[in-house]
């Protein structure tokens, strides 16, 4: 996470020169779907490649249905990819079995969107936080150790002594999300996938939970994959950003590079539509025309071309590969006609406001 005026933390703990903790290459995932009396293959992910470093926050943005949750579920090994590789500390977790697989499962945990739905109302906060140890029995074998660690974890997320005996409904939304975070930390993970972790919370509470995640990252060196529809939240927390469209990554790079000068027309449109970013000087809003195509019958070539004002015949004929920005090799976009440096005219009918 990066430091901003609103966060209490310091700069992120990511080491840009270090070996990636997680390396994902060419990941593809399809789901069989019944449609029109026959089974068709829906490509939820196609050719996904990225790295995640220790202590880094990777923001994942894109419209509903673009594949964010499928990617998250694959990282948690809840989905098996059709093809491609995942390397975690050099190991492909999909090849592991038995005790080694169980061991590995500790390393990636999840914080869910809705702290109301994701906590069992019949369990105390202490039971919720210690539940993962039922599967991973070796971690804290004695009740005394478990009790001490629960109190420690609740303290780490800013809850008070005695809170372990209370039930979820006795806590506010922000406090419930703190319990969810403590539960995710119980197995001492390297990566936490945060799926819209603050979108169910009041604005004032959102900042507190984001600050907590930031503090925990500094203390523990944990990496986050941070999924959010809210671009201002992603800009606030992410070190790097990945923009997804119809199952593919259209752009990725450092947060300030991507938000400051989006290369892909889709990213430019997405970011121009975020009010707070627009006020920060992004210029005109680009309104995308047309519906999001069905992932069952995506366009040929560049998947964004049916909604892109810059599309040419070339975009229908071939699929663009990610190409680096000449001034910043870590910032890439899969586009034959990336956005220029200067503000570009958007044709009438595409609704530049
Ligand atoms: N189990 C499944 N069976 C069939 N199709 C699926 C399945 N899971 C996801 N999909 C489809 O895969 C595509 C990607 O879905 P996914 O949930 O990953 O998107 P998303 O970006 O997370 O969306 P949202 O922001 O709404 O959660 C969608 O078209 C979705 O309908």
Task: Sum up the structure in keywords.
22% strand, single chain, eight-stranded mixed beta sheet, AAA+_ATPase, binds adenosine-5'-triphosphate, three-stranded antiparallel beta sheet, alpha/beta, 353 residues, ATP binding
Mean pLDDT across the residues is 89
- Major beta sheet, specifics? 8 strands, mixed
| Shape estimate | globular
Strand content: 15-25%
Brief description of this entry?
It contains twelve helices and eleven strands. It has 353 residues and is of the alpha/beta class.
Descriptive overview:
By secondary structure, this protein is of the alpha/beta class. Helix content is 30%, strand content 22%. The protein is built from twelve helices and eleven strands. The protein has helices at 68-75, 98-105, 125-130, 132-135, 143-156, 173-185, 203-220, 231-237, 255-260, 265-272, 275-282, 313-317, and strands at residues 22-35, 38-52, 57-61, 83-88, 108-111, 191-195, 223-227, 240-245, 248-254, 323-325, 328-333. An eight-stranded mixed β-sheet has the order 5-6-7-3-8-9-11-10, with helices on both faces. It has a three-stranded antiparallel β-sheet with strand order 2-1-4. The protein is globular and about 70 Å long. The structure holds adenosine-5'-triphosphate. Adenosine-5'-triphosphate (ATP) is lined by residues 31, 33, 42, 44, 62, 64-70, 295.
């Amino acid at each position: 996470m990066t430091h901003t005026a609103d966060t209490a933390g310091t700069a992120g703990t990511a080491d840009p020169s270090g070996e990636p903790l997680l390396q994902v290459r060419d990941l593809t995932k399809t789901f069989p779907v019944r449609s029109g009396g026959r089974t068709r293959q829906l490509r939820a992910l196609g050719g996904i490649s990225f790295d995640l470093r220790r202590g880094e926050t990777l923001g994942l943005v894109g419209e509903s249905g673009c594949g964010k949750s499928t990617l998250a579920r694959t990282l948690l090994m809840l989905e098996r990819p059709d093809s491609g590789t995942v390397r975690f500390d050099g190991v492909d977790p999909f090849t592991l079995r038995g005790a080694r697989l169980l061991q590995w499962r500790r390393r990636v945990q999840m914080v869910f969107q809705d702290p109301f739905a994701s906590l069992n109302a019949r369990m105390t906060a202490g039971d919720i936080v210690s539940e993962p140890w039922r599967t991973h029995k070796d971690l804290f074998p004695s009740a005394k150790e478990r009790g001490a660690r629960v109190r420690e974890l609740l303290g780490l997320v800013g809850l008070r002594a005695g809170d372990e005996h209370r039930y979820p409904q006795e806590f506010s939304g922000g406090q419930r999300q703190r319990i969810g975070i403590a539960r995710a930390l119980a197995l001492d993970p390297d990566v936490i996938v945060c799926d819209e972790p603050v979108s169910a919370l009041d604005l004032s509470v959102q900042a507190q939970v984001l600050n907590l995640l930031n503090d925990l990252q500094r203390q523990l060196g944990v990496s986050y994959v941070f999924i959010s529809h809210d671009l201002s939240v992603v800009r606030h927390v992410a070190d790097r950003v990945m923009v997804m469209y119809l199952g593919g990554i259209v752009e990725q790079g450092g947060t300030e590079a991507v938000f400051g000068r989006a290369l892909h027309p889709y990213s430019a449109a997405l970011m121009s539509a975020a009010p707070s970013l627009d006020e920060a000087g992004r210029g005109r809003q680009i309104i995308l025309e047309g519906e999001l195509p069905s992932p069952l019958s995506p366009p040929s070539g560049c998947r964004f071309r049916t909604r892109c004002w810059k599309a040419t015949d070339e975009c229908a004929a071939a699929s663009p590969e990610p190409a680096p920005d000449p001034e910043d090799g870590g910032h890439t976009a899969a586009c034959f006609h990336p956005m220029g440096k200067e503000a570009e005219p958007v044709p009438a009918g595409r609704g530049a406001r």
